[in-house]
Design a protein that fits this description.
The chain has five helices and four strands; from the N terminus they run αβαβαβαβα. The protein is α/β, with parallel strands linked by helices. Helix 3 (81-88) links the parallel strand 2 (62-66) and strand 3 (98-100). Helix 1 (9-31) packs across helix 2 (45-53). The radius of gyration is 16 Å and the shape is globular.
Length: 170
């Protein structure tokens, strides 16, 4: 495992994107496609910006999943993670092979089952994620269930996670 530590968000984002680009190119070279997960939040700004600048990536061979979404909000809502990914990433790239965004308006349990079935068909090569202020990962607040085999879950946000989301103002 390689750990990259830099002293500024821009430097960390640049390094993370460079490493991710190499892994994406490697997966495309080996398998013909690369499956990636992209998270949202301010921690991803610089990473996504640099990843968009990586011109060697053939985006038509990339399958994208996003990490999480709020229940019951449309993708036009300012807090929607689908909106974030579309505006900050997808609209700045040529079309990808496939894009799987979590529809927040659909029934949560059925959505998790459907998304889980899809992601199992496309094992993830690269996950660009951040860790929340309370150590949550994709809204799996401590103490999260690290033994689950489910790729997508419905979770209840604790107060610390809710406050972080409100204060982040992405």
């Amino acid at each position: 495992m390689e750990v990259i530590i830099q002293d500024t968000p821009a430097a960390m984002g640049f390094s993370a994107a460079k490493k991710a680009a190499g892994l994406i190119l490697g997966a495309i070279s080996t398998k013909g496609t690369a499956s990636i997960i992209i998270a949202t939040g301010t921690s991803q700004f610089e990473t996504l910006k640099q990843l968009i600048a990586e011109k060697e990536i053939d985006w038509s061979r990339v399958i994208l999943f996003h990490l999480d979404e709020y229940i019951s909000i449309p993708d036009t809502h300012p807090a929607s993670f689908r909106k974030y990914i579309k505006e900050r990433f997808l609209e700045k790239l040529p079309p990808l092979k496939s894009v799987y965004l979590i529809p927040g308006e659909d029934a949560p349990e059925e959505t998790c089952e459907r998304m889980s079935a899809i992601i199992r068909q496309h094992p993830v090569d690269v996950a660009l994620i951040g860790i929340g202020e309370n150590s949550h990962l994709a809204f799996n607040d401590p103490p999260a269930d690290f033994d689950t085999e489910k790729p997508f879950l419905v979770v209840q946000l604790d107060e610390a996670c809710r406050r972080q989301q409100m204060n982040e103002g992405v």
